[in-house]
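TICKET: design request
STATUS: open
ATTACHED STRUCTURE:
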C-alpha cells in the first residue's frame, strides 16, 4: 500500500524522504479528499492486465507511453529532473503507473503544505488537473513509469503561480465542495 507523509522544511537533497518530525502520516482517504486517486496493480503483467484495462476504459485513458528516468536513459537528464521538481500544475490529470523503480510525488494540501507520496513498482496514481505538485526520484535514481492520458498527451507544466488558470479555479472549487 502506498505511503504518504507531511514533509519537513529541509531544502537539501530532494531525493531523501524528508519526513516531518514528529511523523505525520497521510492516508488514502486524505489523499482522495485532495482529488488524488491511487491503485495497486501487478506491474509484472501491465501489458495484458484486465484491472489496468478496466481503469483505462472507465477513465478514458486512451493514450500511453513508457518513460525510464535515469542518467543513462533519459536525454537531458539533469535538466528534466530539475523541471519535474519545479512546483507546477497541469490543465489535465497526471496519471503515472510505476512499472519498476521508485520515486516521489509531492502535492500541496488545503493549507499549502507539502505531502510526499512514495511511489514504487505497482503503484498507479492520478493527480487532478489544477493541483500544485512536483516529482523527484528517490535515492535509487531510477524509475520506469507508464504515462497515461485522456486523448492526445499534453506535456505543458504551468509553474506556480498559476492561480489564474481555469483548471486551478476548478480545483479550488472541488476542494471547497469536499471540505
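STATUS: resolved
RESOLUTION: sequence designed for all positions
ATTACHED SEQUENCE:
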Amino acid at each position: 500500500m502506498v505511503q504518504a507523509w507531511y514533509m519537513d522544511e529541509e531544502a537539501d537533497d530532494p531525493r531523501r524522504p524528508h519526513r516531518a518530525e514528529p511523523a505525520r502520516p497521510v492516508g488514502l482517504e486524505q489523499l482522495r479528499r485532495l482529488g488524488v486517486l491511487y491503485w495497486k496493480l501487478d506491474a509484472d503483467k501491465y501489458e495484458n492486465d484486465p484491472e489496468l484495462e478496466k481503469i483505462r476504459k472507465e477513465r478514458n485513458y486512451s493514450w500511453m507511453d513508457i518513460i525510464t528516468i535515469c542518467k543513462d536513459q533519459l536525454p537531458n537528464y539533469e535538466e528534466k529532473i530539475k523541471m519535474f521538481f519545479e512546483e507546477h500544475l497541469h490543465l489535465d490529470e497526471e496519471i503515472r503507473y510505476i512499472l519498476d523503480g521508485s520515486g516521489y510525488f509531492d502535492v500541496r494540501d488545503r493549507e499549502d503544505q507539502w505531502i510526499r507520496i512514495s511511489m514504487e513498482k505497482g503503484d498507479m496514481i492520478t493527480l487532478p488537473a489544477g493541483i500544485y505538485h512536483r516529482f523527484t526520484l528517490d535515492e535509487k535514481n531510477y524509475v520506469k513509469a507508464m504515462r497515461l492520458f485522456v486523448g492526445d498527451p499534453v506535456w505543458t507544466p504551468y509553474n506556480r503561480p498559476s492561480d489564474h488558470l481555469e483548471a486551478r479555479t476548478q480545483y479550488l472549487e472541488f476542494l471547497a465542495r469536499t471540505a
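CLOSING REMARK: The radius of gyration is 16 Å. The mean pLDDT is 97.
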